[in-house]
Task: inverse folding
């Protein structure tokens, strides 16, 4: 049914642009290309939305290397290949307030989504609050799975304050479950 509607829309476009003389095989190829692009775009959107990026507009191509932050363009280009995700390696991004740590982490997360890795962004303070609430509501394992399952987890505001003992246990449990099967970006 969806293909029929798309074919009708495509037929209207063909008649509007005087493409009637284009052979059927070429028109069919165009239809397949449109469907492929649509599915690829939808798949990317299905990965980006649940990632809940703080800065969903962040892109590697938009990083400013001239602002005096001494960013290594070669390293960032290498990281944008997401090889570290495939190898289950972690990244630590450190810097002063306002230096662009969150932007860089979100840009790397967007690149991972483009390569069809599942990604989740969370601020550590929000994670700790959510874990406490889940413990009280009896949904601890379910919430823990939400953060264990993504191939790439981005932890922002990593250990800005010393966590309490219960919070330390939550962090340890999460990192223990993620080791050797996923990657994490820590921003601090």
Result:
């Amino acid at each position: 049914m969806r293909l029929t509607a798309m074919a009708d829309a495509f037929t209207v476009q063909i008649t509007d642009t005087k493409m009637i003389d284009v052979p059927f095989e070429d028109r069919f190829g165009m239809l397949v290309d449109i469907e492929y692009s649509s599915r690829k775009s939808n798949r990317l959107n299905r990965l980006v939305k649940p990632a809940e990026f703080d800065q969903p507009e962040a892109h590697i191509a938009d990083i400013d290397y001239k602002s005096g932050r001494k960013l290594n363009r070669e390293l960032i280009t290498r990281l944008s290949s997401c090889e570290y995700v495939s190898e289950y390696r972690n990244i630590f991004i450190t810097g002063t307030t306002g230096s662009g740590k969150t932007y860089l982490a979100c840009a790397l997360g967007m690149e991972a989504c483009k390569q069809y890795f599942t990604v989740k962004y969370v601020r550590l303070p929000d994670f700790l609050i959510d874990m406490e609430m889940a413990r009280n509501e009896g949904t601890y394992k379910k919430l823990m799975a939400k953060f264990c399952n993504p191939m790439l987890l981005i932890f922002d505001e990593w250990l800005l304050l010393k966590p309490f003992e219960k919070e330390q246990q939550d962090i340890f449990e999460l990192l223990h479950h993620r080791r050797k099967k996923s990657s994490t970006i820590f921003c601090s």
